[in-house]
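Weekly sync notes, structure subgroup
Attendees: PM, AL, DS (notes)

Item 1: joint prediction request from the bench team. They want all two components modeled as one assembly rather than separately. Inputs as received:
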Amino acid sequence: MKLYSFTQSLTNKIVLVILSISIILSNQALSANKAEQTNTNNHPLRIAVASNFTTPLKELLIDFHQQTGIKTQIISGATGAMFIQIQHGAPFDIFLAADSIRPAKLEQQNLIIAKSRKTYALGQLALFSMNSTVSLEDLQYLSQKENQRFAIANPDTAPYGKAAKETLAHLGLWQPYQNKLVVGININQTFAQIRTQAVSNGLIANSQLVLNNLAGAVIPSDYHQPIEQQLVILKNSKNVDNAKKLSEYLLSPSVQKKIVNFGYAAIEQP
Amino acid sequence: MINSDVLALLTTLKMAALTTLILLILGTPLAWYLAKMRSRFKVIIEAIVALPLVLPPTVLGFYLLIAFSPQHLPGQLWQQATGQQLAFSFSAIVIGSVLYSMPFVVQPLQKAFEQLGDPLLEAGAMLGAGPMDRFFNIVLPITKASFITAASLGFAHTVGEFGVILMIGGNIPGETRVLSIALFDHVEAFDYARAHVLAISLLIGSMVLLASIYLLNNPRKKTMNKAKR
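Output from the run, pasted for the record:
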């Protein structure tokens, strides 16, 4: 049998060689990387974090690592998606959510370490436009303007979207805004829509503005229910001690001050 | 430590190459079977193979996540067999990609096998070639172009995959964080500079890969070579 005549042709050889080389090379590099990781530290603390808090967290972790020597690994994503993944056994140690609903549900389902659910940041909403400086009074003015789109995040799924709806309702403007709304799947999409000037105005997270050195009009926090961002330590974590250290670190007064500087509201101490 | 984007690139290459190999091994008999099948169940199997083209990736990913989790049977069986959790592992994203890229490999092969006439195979059989011999020495050389198309489409589609991996992978560096997810992360974190770098390299890499495969596969090249001679 001449089984090899097929593989003798040049093209096929090239395709097969490319496939095998990429498997072998990437495999070696990846396992080398893994070995390096296990040598230098046993298990890095795996932090699942809502995307709006990823950049502040990265900056805070530099200091955290210097203080404690604990190595960390950040996994950033949408709170809803990571919530589903945790329910199905995702190997995270600590979860920094963008809301309080998902952490509370995880607590109900007995998936977290008892009493580990804590509010680590309070979100602030801001009115923002790329083309002009805005003030709070503009909310009234914009509601009457024809052909004007207004961006908010989805009130049913995104915490900042819910707060945006509550703010407009608080001002009695939810109805006039109905036919103007462009609804983003999350607050990042809403911010991107305004930043690219696809939509001229909208309500977004103040932390996004601070992060990008932009300024908008901060919405008073009594216009909406507090946007509580909570953290939980997961029950199947093998790194509970380090997770607790991170939780304590994030809640410490000095770090809380830094978090406020990232564009969040101060948490009132009970 | 390797740079996290390079790590994502390596993970992507390994995933796509493994997926393509598995799909060629599994997809070839399946495509052959579909091409030669006369049963009325054929349309049902064809529809199942084509489903990933229609289903939103996140939906497929969500159900795969449920199936792969330790609470459900497929995930449990895997855990018993290998001792490791299936969801959020490299194996999970390879299995997910195999399912998701299946139509891109099976369909071109099936079309090629359908167009292949029986007389050639019968002549081969008359000359004493066994089934394996006939497949490797008659079918493969004739349908070579379709194999290359199938492999390159399967590979390219796996590199570009996002929704399924986002759900079942869990974005773990060195394990399940692939290029498309790293790119999404950079955009979400407003790190547009790194996002642009990744996007451009992904674009150029895919262009080079696809163009070179089409170049190798170009029938005009052969006639041109002959003309030169």
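Discussion: Residues 184 and 195 of chain B are 8 Å apart (CA to CA).
Action: AL to compare against the crosslinking data before next sync.
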